[in-house]
Amino acid sequence: MPVDTTPSIADRMAEVLALDPKAVAVEANGVASTWGDIAAAAAAVEAELVRLGVPKAAPVGWVARNGAPAVAVFAGLLLHGRPILIGLLGLPRLAVLLQLVAH
Prior knowledge:
This protein is an alpha+beta fold. The chain has helices at 9-19, 35-51, 68-79, 91-102, and strands spanning 24-28, 31-34, 60-63, 84-87. Helix content is 50%, strand content 17%.
């Protein structure tokens, strides 16, 4: 049986973040963030999850938003192999999601 050599999503994310750390990755509301900024923020997200004791296998909620912080969190979750519970909800439904997570 052939061995699958397809890179994982984490491997691909690491490759993207390392391509050109000084290149602009996201520009929103007149603020430009580089791939290096995204990588640093992604590492900080993982460090915080570890500090809080969030198990590696626990799904982490993420709500899609425009801007570097959302990209950094998503990159960090992918990079570190965290399961992601993706919310593509508008703000009115965000309250419903938060209620579900709280229970």
